[in-house]
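Hey, sorry to bother you again with one of my protein questions. I've been staring at a protein lately and its backbone has me curious. I owe you a coffee for this, so here goes:
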Amino acid sequence: MAFKGRDLAEWTGGYWHGDSPLMIEGLFFDTRMIEPKSLFVALSYGVRDGHDFIEEAMKRGASCCIVERAIALEIPQLIVENSLEALANIARRVRGDFMNPVIGITGSCGKTSTKAMLQSVLGSNKTYATKGNWNNCLGVSMTLAKLPEKDYAFSVIEAGVSDQGEMSLLSSIIQPNVCVFTNIGEAHLEGFGTVDLIAEEKSKLLEYAKEGAMVVAPKAVLERSAFEGYRSDAVAIVKGVVHAMASYKNIYGYQWIESEKHSAKVSLVCGDQKYEYRLQSLSEGMIQNSVLSVVTAMEMGVATDTILEGIESWNPVGGRGAIIPLDEEGKSFIFQDSYNANPSSMHDSLNTFERVSEDCVQRLYVLGIMNELGENSCAFHESVTQALKPRKGDRLIFIGASELTDAYKKGAKSAGWDDSVLESFLTIELCNVDFSQFIGAIFLKGSRSCKLEALIPFFTHSYNA
């Protein structure tokens, strides 16, 4: 995306110190990513102050920068009150010029997977989307500020929050035409306190939505009081048979059965219309995410063939329920779901793992702690392992702060696990277990801070040795 210097000054309310550039080729806040003739955004929040890296940005080709104070360097500087707010204002202006549908996605988990599924069903070559999980103010602003001039038919933007008041800001930047809610569960409770407050915050994705915006969500989400005013215009999905429309604009029922090779056959019904597709996952959460994606595309008028071909082409990506085979027979593999964790996603992933590993001789569970769960954190950890039934040959390894791994251990013991197969380590670097003799299925899941993916080379090396 190219910008004129005078436009950026107008949009941000700032002024140029030095000559205003005629044309700027892109925006960057990380000096390692800078391209020639681009603008470097010096952000002042966080561990490092971006103003300290302007000279490095110049060496890498930046032609100008956004700053909160003038720096004694020979480079045009757009001086603003707050660099992050300036970036958000640029994103709002670019988003305002995009005339095609913008889909905003939020929820306690499943946002990134649902975004990827939506790209598949809408058409990857004509859908612009958030990269990775860039779902905070910086990520959303950078994504929309770089919305290409190419005529994309759709844009899919992920919105994540960890404290009250953040969603209103994200909504004001995204201004969605369609709002998709994956679920409401126990995540970031330190910032919210209760699930009801989480629901209230998530619902604010609709605050700056375009007039007539469509809402797509599980019926369980729409039944929460925070969504009371949106139900009549919402499209709901529910597992099972739909007996009545109730108070929704439309409602889809779905069911699924296990198919071959760790996949599910999903049946989707709306009125007298029935659709079927195969999904490369046995996760209840992933199946629900797929239904949300398919239903959203259908309600937007995308061709059914395009939708069904798209969802069947989707595959789990690394860190989000991907299966990494370790042998040709399928009896040894890694269930790699280590990107992040909260109680809802942990229970779902464990249930999925038990299904796909049913025929494996041994199972090794590596559970990282779940962060940001507030005062009931120990109880949530205990509940996870209380629901995990032991089987001969299985082992449990816990990674993270001792208070929480002790809670995991307490729950496991109450479920019947023997102390001899339970181990705890403060960090993944201290995990000195010899995996060379283990043959079976391996489960990896925990919060990002646990870095469980670091174990993958040890497992793959053991099998290839």
Summary: The radius of gyration is 24 Å. The chain has three domains: 2-80, 98-313, 322-464.
